């Protein structure tokens, strides 16, 4: 009786383990709030800090381009003024 009870418990635990949804090992996964394992795709994650950083870099680059353009215009104007004075 002792072995048959142990066998029955082992059989039930093995059967319940088969009901668990499995995710491929090579696929990134995480658990949701209910404890279920779900596949994770980082490409679908919204990253506002990354987007904000890119926007700030674009804005800074545009500002630098404007500054360089203003400097070039000032240099060209100074050259024209110097040539007109001679």
How are the SSEs ordered, and which strands pair?
Layout (H helix, E strand, L loop, with lengths): L1 H17 L10 E3 L5 E3 L8 H38 L1
Antiparallel strand pairs: 1-2
Short description:
Keywords: Signal. This protein has 86 residues and is mainly alpha-helical.
Please explain how this structure is put together.
The mean pLDDT is 83. With 86 residues, the chain is mainly alpha-helical. The chain folds into 2 domains: 1-44, no CATH class; 46-86. It contains 2 helices and 2 strands. Residues 1-17 form the signal peptide.
Descriptors for this entry?
signal, 64% helix, 2 helices, 86 residues, mainly alpha
Helix percent reads 55-70%
- Could you give the distance between the termini? 117 Å
The count of domains is 2
What oligomeric state is this? single chain
Q: What is the N-to-C succession of helices and strands? A: HEEH
Structural class: mainly alpha
Give the total of beta strands: 2
Low-confidence residue ranges? none
Shape: rod-shaped
Strand content: 5-15%
How many individual helices?
Answer: 2
The major pleated sheet works out as:
2 strands, antiparallel
Keywords: Signal
């Amino acid at each position: 009786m002792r072995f048959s009870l142990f066998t029955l418990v082992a059989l039930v635990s093995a059967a319940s383990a088969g009901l668990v949804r499995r995710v491929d090992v090579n696929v990134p996964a995480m658990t949701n709030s209910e404890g279920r394992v779900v596949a994770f795709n980082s490409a679908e994650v919204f990253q506002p800090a990354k987007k904000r950083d890119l926007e700030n870099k674009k804005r800074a680059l545009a500002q630098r381009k404007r500054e360089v353009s203003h400097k070039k215009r000032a240099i060209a104007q100074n050259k024209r003024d110097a040539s007109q004075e001679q």
